[in-house]
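User: Hey, my collaborator sent me this sequence without any context and asked if I could get a structure. I don't really work with proteins. Can you help?
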Amino acid sequence: MTAPEPAHPALDLDDAVHQKTRLALLTVLDEAGQADFPYLRKVLNLTDGNLGRHLDVLAQQGLVEITKGYAGRRPRTWAAITPKGEAALAAEMSVLAALLERFRNRS
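Assistant: No problem. I've predicted the 3D structure and written it out in structure-token form, which is a compact way to encode the shape of the chain:
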């Protein structure tokens, strides 16, 4: 009897994290620690609605924390990556690294 083949690493990609905008958001927040809504909108070239929806998905998963407040008199929304978000991003990057390794080592 032959041993079953191990599951393909692509099956370990997290749907909440892997979507390109959410992966980009987590990456930017990991680099910055925290960023306000206008900065994220500009750096990722997103509409208000699109950015808000993706941040909501990440917040519902506990991967980012949303804080509302003021910068001077102007209302602001900030997003920060959570420890759970950092772990999810690290796990996603590990899967991507494994996929890249398989790609580079193909015959």
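In plain terms: Helices lie at 15-18, 20-32, 37-44, 48-60, 83-104. You can pass these tokens on to your collaborator as they are.
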